[in-house]
Backbone:
């Protein structure tokens, strides 16, 4: 199963894990992106996320297809992204996969977060302590 | 909504996000355009009309939720199609 | 901080995540090993784990040192291994790391589970439906 | 515990795990050994004494919680040292 979701509240890590764990799988891998407290020496208070929601869901779904082509052994995939205000330390994105063997789980999560950052139309603005207007970020990696 | 206007143009919906939304001062607008237009030309029209020159070099467009990969290509538009103005993304 | 533990009860994924999440970190990566329900066509009921506990803790601690040498950017590391009976679908091992940037978190978790499987003195016996005496396993990878 | 026995041997503690524990029918034993012994020799003595021949080719030893990497090396043992018999591991 593919579990794709844009959410506006805190993401429950255990709940996402419970979605993907499977009797036939020995391995679950998970990546969690959280809000950092600093950027180039400036104190970050929170991030504001917005999305082109329909297209973001479509692109997240394309990432799932791509993962299943590359790692056909994968059982479940979950991609959750939070929108709105995400305070420091809280999750903005959670990607998790399950697989009978560990290599596919580990590699696919790593691939998926790279893809998400390069193609899913979501934007974040960093809100700083000294500058509450904030600044739109750009993924460089 | 379904009728073409006098000059042969059609009305499409433009969506703005992030920095482009702030510059355009709206998240959504109706825009009259030729039914067949080069992507680069459409981008230029949108930049002029919605004050996007500050970010014109890093915008890409999406047509009905699909990225337009190449600004040289012609886009075939239908009444009420959706064009999104996509500044550099930063999800994750 | 390094959080190393051998536990005899269910591992709470959210709790392990909470240990490693950090204000200065944008990335957390986690690997979860769970009990599979089949091995070579035989139905697995549960796994029984035993450890040379003191030495296992020492080796887990050496893995942490090795991770910190290879990825000095890492903030927190958690390695939890469960002992005793682990029913199908439940976690036997959880490895999690946090880092300002994602590459170190992703790569270090992958490296750590390989190391754990090759050097930490822990053993598992698979208990089958048709064969309750079970069979000691051997990590091959 | 601190006295050497008559023949010049000392008593060390042997720990057994997993398959070796089942074959030895115990998880722990006291064993008399020369204070300096080649690792391979010690392994052979343990295999003979504790019925480990079924797995003798895949056992490794640990001395005071450190793997003995090379069976050719001499081990220097002290009274009450701990030698663990380690069959192939399968954690994770």
Residues:
């Amino acid at each position: 199963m593919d579990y794709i979701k844009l959410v506006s509240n805190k993401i429950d890590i255990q709940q996402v894990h419970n979605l993907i764990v499977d009797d036939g799988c020995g391995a679950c891998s998970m990546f969690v992106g959280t809000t950092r407290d600093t950027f180039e020496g400036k104190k970050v208070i929170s991030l504001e996320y917005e999305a082109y929601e329909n297209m973001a869901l479509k692109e997240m779904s394309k990432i799932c297809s791509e993962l299943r082509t590359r790692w056909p052994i994968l059982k479940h995939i979950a991609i959750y992204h939070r929108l709105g205000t995400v305070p420091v330390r809280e999750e903005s994105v959670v990607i998790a996969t399950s697989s009978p063997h560990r290599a596919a789980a580990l590699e696919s999560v790593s691939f998926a977060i790279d893809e998400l950052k390069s193609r899913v139309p979501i934007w974040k603005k960093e809100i700083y302590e000294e500058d509450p207007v904030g600044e739109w970020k750009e993924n460089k990696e | 909504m379904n009728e073409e206007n006098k000059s042969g143009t059609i009305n499409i919906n433009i969506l703005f996000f992030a920095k482009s939304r702030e510059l355009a001062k709206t998240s959504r607008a109706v825009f009259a355009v030729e039914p067949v237009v080069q992507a680069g030309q459409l981008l230029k029209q949108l930049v002029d009309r919605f004050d996007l020159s500050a970010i014109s070099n890093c915008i890409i467009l999406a047509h009905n939720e699909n990225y337009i990969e190449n600004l040289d290509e012609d886009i075939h538009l239908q009444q009420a199609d959706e064009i999104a103005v996509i500044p550099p993304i930063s999800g994750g």
